[in-house]
Amino acid sequence: MRMLRRVGYGASASLFAIALNTPIQGGAQIAPSPSPAIVRLDGGLDALVEPGEKITRVASGFEFVEGPMWREGRLWFSDLVGNRMYAVTPDGKVTLLIDHAGGLNPSPPGSFSGSNAMATDQGGSVLMLQHGLRRIVRLDSQLKMHPYLERFEGKRFNSPNDLVFDRDGALWFTDPPFGLAGLDKDPAKELPFSGVYRYTDGKLTAVVRDLPEPNGIGFSPDGKVIYISNSGPQKFVMRYDVGVNGTLTNGSKLISYPDDPNTNVPDGLKVDSVGNIWSTGPGGIRILTPAGKVLGQIKLPEVAANLAWAEDGKTLYITATHSIYRLRTKIAGEMPVYGK
């Protein structure tokens, strides 16, 4: 996550009169906005999305939604500014799962200090990233939090942001400074870099140290390529070849954006089953071939932060500022290695 232009947050999630695990319908209202649109830039998009397919808004009324994960018939997601974690059914029934999900109670108003991305692990439990306490926790069956990873070489993480498991069961995650009020200049920052990490067999390795703001992360279907978005100050998506024991080589930019500080940034990304990359960025979500060709763009009335393949694999959920959106696709997405 990161929005350099934090505009129009609308109704606060704090207005919700809800108790833990109590269903709510849709959340608070937001102002009318232009309809979502799919822009076709290449005929190859027709094989991915049916011409005329509509994007629907499933739920709204949050402060800044992020970190979507499909689990047990619902989309789990974080309100990063509202400091809460929710689940929503396909018909729009929203349930609050965890209050103060980022670990701080209270959290600084308007800060990106809630929870962020989540993933089901090998044992079926959930790993959740916390900006507030700058760590990764494991959620048990009662949604109680247990510390999982908190430090690298004795120093606290910046604010773990996004994560993915590879085919061998190793956990990869990004750690930009977005949860720190002063970002890289924040006095609480302990690490001298913003890393991309790999964790397996009890060993934590910083596999990338030279990206200023690593953010979204995902693998090609064969696991031989990893994609990592960088939010700033230069905006781009990197691709690397993945070798033995997670070594990365041949890093190159898949797509670059103008370095305009007043536009939105590359954030989350996901990959479909034939290797196309669906990447958030300035102006919407680009659908890219593995060679970096832009097939189309998903435009929303809000800022798209992240995505998740869900349901039968041919449903894409999008977290965008205040709302959750859904799009049916003709092709399946690359589903997480572990699911439930």
Structure commentary:
The protein has strands spanning 23-25, 37-40, 56-60, 65-71, 74-79, 84-88, 93-99, 115-120, 126-130, 135-139, 145-149, 151-152, 155-156, 163-165, 171-175, 195-200, 203-208, 214-219, 225-230, 235-242, 248-257, 269-271, 277-281, 284-288, 294-299, 304-310, 315-320, 323-328. By secondary structure, it is mainly β. The strands form seven sheets. It has a five-stranded antiparallel sheet with strand order 1-7-6-5-4, with no helix packed on it. A five-stranded antiparallel sheet has the order 2-25-24-23-22, with no helix packed on it. It has a four-stranded antiparallel sheet with strand order 3-28-27-26, with no helix packed on it. A hairpin with a 2-residue loop joins strand 16 (195-200) and strand 17. Residues 3-33 have low confidence and may be disordered.
